[in-house]
Q: What sequence folds into this?
């Protein structure tokens, strides 16, 4: 097993010491992004050769130009349905101001292939396309002081590619947390993610409800951004929170959680896709490079050249399109076992001046 990364003086302690500055900065960015999302709606983003362990051309600095090239994923033959489920973990509580305690509740947005005209997106409570299933499951963790909705276009791209995509709202780490977001609660989020997996598999049982039979329980991935990426990394690789049901992990601008203990990057652990903006000043590239160096193959590191922390996963093009294409190819290879997915992954991960891919398949 690899040794744990000493992040006590790194990501987590740095965040706590700068929490006030970071929160105001992120909230300002979020206001801009939410207004932009309202302007463009929830439509899917337009979506782009790599050699093993080869980095491509130098970065272009600053915000990248928009791209109108090929779509991130092949058009779906079905619509995308959206259900909002409420999972209550009565074995754990959240602590509110005034000493009140409430059961830990995870409102979860579930997207899935649904009956309806191709191209319809986020159709509320649409009947699932059971004939094409069961579908692999991807559980996504959002970043600190936001909600899953800001990542809608990325999550839609996975559902469009034939996955059930579940995005819980973390009780104390989200924008609407009672009393304001509390970043220290990230230590409880890996258990939240595993609880959501268990709850969805319970909903998947015959006769359990509208989603019964929709999920392939043998093929599950976890993913996340920022604090949600730290959550997913812990679920996939930490000794304390490891969930053996997880078959693959996609970590976007993440790191190890301080105080968790050891991370076991041993043979047989889930395949890894790490994504990192080279100009990210919140989760710096060195933290991604540290855990990536310990991970066993198969593993892939997608570097977004000149990109920052949040926009590449929400609306910034061409970065968002690159992340969509690479992640869909990664899921295709390691959840669906598609024969051509690895070659596609290696091809779409490197774009001159925009992205570079390090691969160890």
A:
């Amino acid at each position: 097993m690899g040794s744990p990364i000493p992040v006590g003086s790194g990501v987590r302690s740095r965040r706590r010491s700068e929490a006030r500055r970071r929160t105001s900065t992120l909230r300002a960015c979020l206001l801009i992004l939410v207004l932009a999302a309202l302007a463009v709606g929830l439509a899917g983003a337009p979506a782009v050769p790599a050699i093993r362990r080869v980095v491509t051309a130098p970065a272009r600095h600053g915000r990248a130009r928009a791209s109108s090239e090929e779509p991130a994923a092949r058009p779906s033959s079905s619509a995308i349905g959206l259900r909002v489920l409420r999972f209550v973990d009565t074995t754990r509580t959240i602590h509110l101001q005034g000493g009140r305690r409430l059961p830990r509740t995870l409102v979860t947005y579930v997207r899935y292939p649904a009956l309806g005209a191709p191209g319809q997106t986020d159709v509320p409570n649409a009947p699932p396309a059971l004939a094409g299933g069961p579908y692999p499951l991807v559980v996504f963790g959002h970043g600190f002081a936001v909600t899953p909705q800001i990542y809608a276009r990325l999550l839609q791209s996975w559902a469009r590619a034939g996955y059930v995509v579940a995005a819980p709202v973390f009780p104390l780490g989200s924008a609407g947390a009672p009393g304001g977001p509390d970043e220290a609660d990230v230590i409880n989020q890996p258990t939240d993610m595993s609880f959501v997996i268990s709850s969805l598999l319970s909903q998947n049982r015959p006769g359990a409800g509208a989603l019964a039979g929709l999920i392939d329980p043998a093929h599950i991935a976890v993913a996340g951004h920022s604090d949600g990426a730290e959550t997913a990394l812990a679920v996939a690789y930490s000794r304390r929170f490891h969930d053996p049901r997880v078959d693959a992990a996609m970590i976007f601008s993440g790191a190890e959680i301080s105080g968790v203990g050891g991370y076991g990057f041993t043979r047989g652990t889930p395949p890894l896709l790490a994504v990192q903006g080279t100009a990210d000043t919140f989760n710096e590239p060195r933290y991604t490079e540290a855990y990536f160096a310990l991970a066993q193959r198969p593993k892939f590191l997608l570097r977004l050249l000149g990109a920052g922390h949040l926009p590449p996963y929400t609306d910034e093009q061409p970065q968002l399109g690159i992340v969509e294409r690479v992640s869909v190819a990664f899921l295709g290879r390691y959840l669906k076992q598609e024969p051509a997915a690895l070659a596609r992954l290696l091809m779409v991960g490197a774009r001159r001046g925009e992205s570079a891919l390090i691969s160890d398949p």
Remarks:
- The first strand starts at residue 79 and ends at 95.
- The beta strands are 79-95, 101-114, 123-124, 135-141, 164-168, 215-225, 248-252, 272-277, 299-304, 355-360.
- Residues 1-71 have pLDDT under 50 and may be disordered.
